[in-house]
Design brief:
heterodimer, A: 492 residues, alpha+beta, 3 domains, 5-stranded antiparallel beta sheet, B: 365 residues, alpha/beta, GMP Synthetase, Chain A, domain 3, 2 domains, 9-stranded mixed beta sheet, 4-stranded mixed beta sheet, 12 helices, 13 strands, 37% helix, 31% strand, globular
């Protein structure tokens, strides 16, 4: 009886689960009995009554069905008052469907079931993105429901080539995923590779982002993010149009985009919402901020501990004056404050919003000022660490921001050990590492490694849209023309 | 294997840290200003730095200054002596100004410049000044007695210099470059002590790296006009009319025929009227033409002071030798040896053009 669709077996399987309902229903005078199998709380009650229960009890044509098979055929051919109705003969698939919120009518003698997709569970409404807010542009963001998310994407790309493939991962969680791509643009090798990776996930639960990300990225030891996530459907649709692949995971309120390159992580939706001069300026500020957050603390340590002659006269003298009565070395000061800064961030995340703000003021201003007044740290170090900290948060991608924050510790330690020599070694290590990263057959720092005019138009600067004639070489394998004229009649 | 490499790498870095001049910034006495003198048969270095308590962050560099001295047979020896006397490490890495006393300059500036230029930390854009008729140490001590902040006063001198000329030729790197050529005369600005400040009065003239003379202010300005580095310059004409040069450009050409050298100096400049203390209307065409001629003559006289000095003393303060080398490269090799005798025979021709601009926007006369 095992692994066959049978009401007795299913009843015994879920006898201890109060939320799983297996209910016997007699259909007509022919004494055909079907079994309703669903999970309470995951279904749309109103739709259930209307589309399933009412039709079963009051549809006069059902009384003409003398066998279960005939009844099934009738229901599948339009008798069921619901469009998403299908026959299921596979026991595992049936379980998955019902446990994800569908309703099944089990026909014991046929060992089959009819599945109604009338899922409905409590969900958030579509809100403004919390991380990627823009002044101009769409205010929609993804939510935890996969189908809503795919609908948001579909609403923006009304092409018949947009493919939404369903996948499942997680031995216990059986998490639904959708692999989204535009079939006549995306590189199918990349699509296949991502599909293979998802299918190869053999862990119990993939409901948290890190579980999925770690399986999808190719260089697992790198702290730089190799997979981009976004809360914005417009951003996903833009990347899909470029030939990239999106992965929508049920229960996660953002969508992954693959393959990912470093310049993508430095782009913000605002770049495209403003004039290209403003967009380019913002992007340059972001790159400068990355340099500041990465190197400023290390530079300060190196300059004040080893190569003070590098500082301009005035700066050297004022730095020296500021540090006169501080008992700690510059390296200890900077590293200590950097750690304190991370503690403040972590505490701010854990605390309720109202308390978090007060704590930030207390930690940042009061403690900082007191530490300076008590000569525990010099004012210059407070400025340096604050500047580096604030610059770190300008990164549009929080994963990149975290990676850079961690890297600046490494650079600060190297600078403390060997001054600018250590800093230079750190820089070489970072560049070498970034150059070695390969992400689904694309270089991570592309197009900086393969500088071609047409590819750099959306990197350090954001050129006017009319210059984006072609899709990125590295990701769009098939249809490279991105912009044509009306006469061309070309579609993506 | 990877762990081993990381461990070795860390070990190397730790090892490096013991041999990389690790010194916290507050353990160093940065010399702001250094004086170099020659006295009683030995070099005397006097250093000014922030007091041991450090400059007051609120006052910036206006905090207290301290000075100390070091003596030795050579500037290097004197510097070592200075280091020994100091509680902290002494560094000239951030020294902005070097003052060379009259006697040290008269003994030969090459010794001082050589010492400074061999320090790998010294800033090549540091400024060098000669202290006229005084030892640098006395100059500094006098300033201390008057309650002056030497560094700030020298900064003020530098700013004034930048207001008048387009570039500072007295940076260490420029002086090193100028002194390489022993045919021309080197020029370094000199300072004199005023009541409560320092005054930049003109150039000290170096012949074969030895201080030989001081140029007055007009002659020095004439040199600046010919060197094409004038940014602003005041002109005082009769009838209490004051003008200021807002733009100046000079070109020097030379013509060598039968060992007779003629140098043509073309100067064009623009001025703005800054002061009119006369009842006459000067903004008529005739008056403006007259003023233009007068200002041409005024500037020509200043330039002539520089050329006349060169002719009378036989010192190539205008660096005509370099011009010859560039413009008559082949002939230069023939006359190079007799150059010092030729300087006095150079014939100068002047072509001065000017115009008065933007002068009467608000005024009615």
């Amino acid at each position: 009886m095992e692994n066959r669709i049978n009401s007795s077996w299913i009843t015994s399987l879920f006898e201890k689960s109060q939320d799983v309902v297996v209910r016997q229903i007699k259909i007509n005078q022919n004494n055909i009995t079907v079994y309703l199998f669903c999970v309470d709380g995951l279904i749309n009650q109103a739709l259930f009554d209307e589309a399933v229960f009412r039709s079963l009890k009051f549809d006069p044509y059902l009384s003409h069905c003398v066998t279960e098979r005939a009844m099934m055929d009738y229901l599948l051919e339009g008798g069921a008052y619901h469009v998403f109705t299908s026959e299921e003969a596979d026991y595992q698939k049936l379980l998955k469907s019902v446990l994800s919120g569908m309703v099944a009518l089990i026909f014991d003698s046929e060992e089959k079931a009819i599945v109604y997709d009338i899922r409905m569970f409590e969900k958030r409404s579509i809100q403004e993105p919390s991380e990627e807010n823009v002044m101009k542009g769409s205010k929609e963001s993804f939510i935890e429901v996969m189908r809503m998310n795919t609908a948001l994407i579909r609403r923006r790309i009304r092409s018949e080539h947009l493919v939404v493939e369903s996948l499942t991962a997680g031995r216990v969680s059986k998490t639904d995923m959708s692999l989204v791509y535009i079939s006549n643009i995306a590189d199918m090798n990349t699509v296949n590779k991502i599909r293979e990776k998802i299918n190869s996930i053999e862990i119990d639960n993939v409901s948290t982002p890190a579980f999925i990300e770690e399986f999808l990225i190719e260089n697992k030891h790198s702290i730089f993010p190799q997979i981009m996530y976004t809360q914005r459907p417009d951003r996903v649709s833009a990347n899909l149009s470029d030939g990239r692949v999106a992965l929508v995971v049920d229960g996660i309120p953002f969508v992954y985009i693959l393959p990912c390159q470093l310049p993508m992580l430095m782009q913000s939706p605002d770049d495209y919402a403003n004039h290209f001069f403003i967009g380019s300026s913002l992007r340059i500020i972001r790159y400068l901020s990355m340099i500041v957050t990465l190197f400023l603390p290390a530079f300060y340590i190196a300059a004040t501990t080893y190569q003070s002659q590098m500082l301009p006269v005035q700066l050297a003298l004022s730095t020296q004056a500021a540090k006169q009565n501080v008992p700690f070395s510059s390296a200890s000061e900077v590293l200590g404050l950097l750690i304190s800064f991370e503690i403040l961030i972590e505490a701010g995340l854990r605390l309720p919003k109202a308390v978090g703000t007060a704590m930030s003021i207390l930690g940042g201003l009061v403690v900082g000022q007191s530490a300076v007044a008590a000569n525990l740290v010099s004012p210059a170090v407070v400025v340096i660490v604050s500047l580096a900290g604030i610059s770190g948060f300008i990164m549009p991608n929080q994963d990149l921001s975290s990676g850079i924050r961690l890297t600046r510790f490494l650079l600060a330690v190297l600078a403390a050990l060997a001054g600018f020599f250590g800093l230079a070694i750190g820089l070489i290590l970072i560049i070498t590492h970034l150059c070695s990263l390969n992400n689904y057959n694309t270089a991570y720092i592309w197009p900086f490694v393969d500088v071609e005019e047409r590819n750099i138009k959306d990197t350090l600067f954001r050129f006017p849209i009319r210059y984006f004639k072609k899709r990125p070489d590295e990701v769009a394998a098939q249809n490279k023309i991105k912009q044509g004229t009306k006469k061309d009649g070309q579609e993506g | 294997m990877k762990k081993l490499i990381i461990f070795l790498f860390s070990l190397i870095l730790c090892g490096c840290s013991h041999d990389m001049n690790r010194r916290e910034i507050d353990e160093i006495n940065f010399i702001h200003v250094m004086g170099i003198d020659y006295s009683e048969g030995e070099y005397v270095l006097s250093a000014i730095y922030s007091s041991s308590q450090g400059a007051d962050p609120e006052k910036g560099l206006a905090g207290d200054e301290e000075s100390s001295e070091g003596r030795g047979a050579t500037p290097f020896e004197a510097f070592q002596n200075l280091k020994l006397k100091n509680k902290k490490t002494v560094s000239i890495a951030n020294t902005g100004y070097f003052l060379i006393g009259d006697r040290a300059a008269s003994k030969g500036i090459d010794v001082c410049i050589d010492f400074l230029s061999r320090d790998e930390t010294v800033k090549m854009e540091s400024l060098l000044f000669i202290v006229k008729d005084m030892r640098a140490v006395d100059f500094i001590n006098e300033s201390f007695e008057k309650g002056q902040n030497v560094h700030e006063d020298l900064e003020a001198v530098e700013q004034k210099q930048q207001e008048l000329v387009t570039r500072n030729d007295n940076t260490l790197v420029n002086i090193l470059n100028a002194l390489e050529n022993d045919i021309t005369c080197g020029l370094i600005p000199y300072l004199v002590a005023d009541e409560n400040s320092f005054l930049l009065q003109g150039y000290a003239v170096f012949d074969k790296l030895i201080l030989v003379d001081y140029l007055d202010m007009d002659t020095s300005s004439g040199v600046n006009f010919i060197k094409n580095i004038i940014r602003a310059y005041p002109i005082y004409l009769e009838d209490n009319i004051g003008l200021s040069i807002s733009y100046s450009k000079s070109r020097i050409k030379s013509k060598l025929t039968n060992n007779e050298l003629k140098v043509m100096i073309d100067l064009s400049f623009e001025t703005m009227v800054k002061e009119v203390n006369t009842d006459n209307n000067i903004f008529t065409e005739e008056e403006l033409n007259r003023l233009t001629k007068m200002q041409n003559t005024y500037i020509e006289n200043i330039i002539k002071k520089a050329t006349n000095y060169s002719i009378h003393t036989g010192r190539d303060i205008l660096q005509i030798a370099r011009l010859m080398e560039n413009q008559h490269n082949k002939k230069w090799s023939e006359i190079e040896d007799d150059w010092s005798s030729m300087i006095s025979t150079i014939e100068y021709e002047f072509d001065i053009k000017s115009q008065i601009t933007k002068s009467f926007i608000l005024g009615s006369r």
